[in-house]
Design goal:
Strand 7 and strand 8 form a beta hairpin. The radius of gyration is 18 Å and the shape is globular. The termini are close together. It is of the alpha/beta class. A six-stranded parallel sheet has the order 2-1-3-4-5-6, with helices on both faces. A two-stranded antiparallel sheet has the order 7-8. The chain contains ten helices and eight strands.
Length: 294
């Protein structure tokens, strides 16, 4: 165990005070509206909060999806968010939900993130993520041809069982009514990365040089605890794992979201600075990732 120099910790804290920017990245089928609670929480805490919409997700429920949505790659989403980060003029903390958590991992591997919190994250390649529940959830989509080129939105019944099981019936129906179709190609790249010639979702753990928090509800059926455990283990001592009882997949909005937000804030404000020292991962300085001296 490395002895912690508290003067270094305080110096990191001062750096944090100069730039408290958080980027919130939504996941499949959703839009920035899922971050309403988190945005208010972190703005009240003194952060600048940015909530971009993924490509072709700036529509209303029931609208016709963009003609190219079905073939939009997760690499397109990442490229757009990378451009957003460069416009910010600093490396933000990033919180990603579901597919947004995978996007956060990909951004971290590009050296664009000062700390990442992955909520109910989709796992990156090379982590094997296929399980029989995926077939149950997406049976209708998987049997459509070619599903990897079409926009897709699972039925309410499938979503109620898999990702909305943390809500009562009224709230589940209201949330489902706010969702929009997702890219079939992105779904293919995540669920079947081993068949994807480009390995779009491949993340090199050695290139992730920032602290990572992985949080998953123990009742999550889409990205269950075993996946979260493997994902966190992939990043070694750069990651912290939190399995949350009484929660399902939709952590940003389920009852008790305040505890999730508080846990995330504590990670960014207290644990991440210590990890920069203990683990030797990188602390951003003047817009560049530099090794923090130990």
């Amino acid at each position: 165990m490395v002895n912690i120099n508290m003067e270094q910790v305080r110096a990191v804290g001062k750096s944090e005070a100069r730039d408290r920017t958080i980027l919130l990245v939504h996941g499949m089928w959703s839009r920035p509206h899922i971050w309403t609670n988190f945005r208010a929480y972190f703005e009240d805490r003194g952060y600048r909060v940015v909530t971009p919409a993924l490509r072709h997700h700036d529509i209303e429920p029931g609208d016709e999806p963009h003609p190219t949505l079905g073939t939009t790659s997760i690499l397109d989403y990442v490229a757009d968010i990378e451009a957003n980060i460069k416009d910010l003029g600093c490396k933000p903390f990033v919180i990603g939900h579901s597919m947004g958590g995978l996007i956060a991992q990909m951004l971290a591997a590009r050296g664009l993130v000062r700390g990442a919190a992955l909520l109910s994250t989709a796992p990156c390649a090379p982590i094997l993520s296929f399980n029989t529940d995926i077939v149950r959830i997406f049976f209708r989509e998987l049997t459509a041809t070619p599903f990897w080129r079409c926009p897709q939105l699972p039925s309410y019944k499938a979503m109620r069982w898999s990702v909305l099981n943390g809500f009562n019936e009224r709230d589940a129906r209201n949330l489902y009514a706010s969702l929009i179709p997702e890219s079939g190609r992105s779904f293919f790249e995540i669920a079947f990365w081993y068949l994807d010639r480009r390995r779009a979702t491949l993340v090199d753990a050695r290139k992730v040089q920032c602290p990572v928090l992985v949080m998953t509800g123990l009742d999550d059926r889409l990205t269950p605890a075993p996946l979260a455990i493997r994902n966190a283990a992939y990043f070694g001592n750069k990651a912290r794992l939190e399995l949350v009882p009484g929660h399902s997949h939709w952590l940003p909005s389920e009852t008790g979201w305040e505890e999730i937000a508080e846990r995330t804030a504590r990670f960014f404000e207290i644990e991440a600075p210590r990890m920069w020292i203990e683990v030797g991962v990188s602390e951003p300085s003047d817009g560049l990732l530099q090794p923090f001296p130990v």
